[in-house]
Amino acid sequence: MFYFCEVKIHEKYMLRCIQLGKKGLGNTAPNPMVGSVIVYNDKIIGEGHTSAYGGSHAEVNAINSVTDTSLLKEATIYVTLEPCSHYGKTPPCADLIIQKQIKTVVIGTLDPHEKVAGKGIKRLKEAGCTVITCVLEEECKEHHKRFLTFHVKKRPYIILKWAETLDGFIAPETSLRKKNPEPFWITNPYSRQLVHKWRSEEQAILVGTNTAIQDNPKLDTRSWKGKNPIRIVLDKNLKVNKNSFLLDNTIKTIVFTEKKDASKAGFNTTQIEVPFDGSLANTICDSLFKLNITSVIIEGGAKTLQTFIASKLWDEARIFKGINNFSAGTKAPIIKGINLQTTQIDTDQLILLKND
User: Fold this and answer.
1) 219-231 b/e (C-beta count within 10 Å ≥ 16 → b)
2) Of 26, 216, 305, 328, which one has the fewest beta carbons inside 10 Å?
3) Which residue in the list 6, 11, 47, 59 is annotated as catalytic?
């Protein structure tokens, strides 16, 4: 009975850690968005989450928030992810915990990073700490899904996003495009603002050539306060006009192409040569992994989305269904997955799928 109560107490504080960790969403990458609390006599005396990339880790911020540091020797520190044991931009968190003589460490899930991977736990145990692992492990894995996917699968966490009409089209027929080159909005303003929020949460955003040319998108977060993602364009033959928003150098942009052309690059735009063959999706993922990009949201078009679906290189799909019809045009991608949730956003329906 005592063990049951103890587990529930650990879960309570780990839930708070997850809540804190979410404050780092969109800012900590490629570091994980860790949350940490310090508890003394069943009272939280310190809290912290990972600072923006290059800043302090969650454990450091939690320890620094404690007013009476003499309590640390009798305290318990909770953390969503195994404390690091290596020097990066900051010293190892495991060493700091040992230095402060915190006796008990409760961890949500292990860190698969090759420089950690159990070494943090080993160091803590060797120093005499009591280490409790796998508390709310599934919830912590879900929280750290971007970081874990990156280090386990060696690719970014991939989110597919599109909007389709009631009759299953994501773009109108070409004749309508010629009359009106501006984007044809399928969704309402609330859904569009939500998409800008999503953009602020991911490290990069990707579109194909047709979307870049037909919509001339900015791919920024102008309708939401947050960091703009790195823009990625698949442009095999460099057809995208150099005067387009995507090549205006206001935001860091990567162009994947089969042939570089320096005249179409810029100080904030990088071209990467890749073969546009049947392995394109895998090649893109490999390249983004090497660039330390942990997550990407793919916003179109249909061909690009279907390429990643066919290669089974996706983790989530976020699909809006509007209330209008196009009757003809570009059909929406075909996808199968586990339906996680269906939500109504005013007139729009939002379907969330998980790759099974």
Assistant:
1) bbbeebebbbbbb
2) 328
3) 59
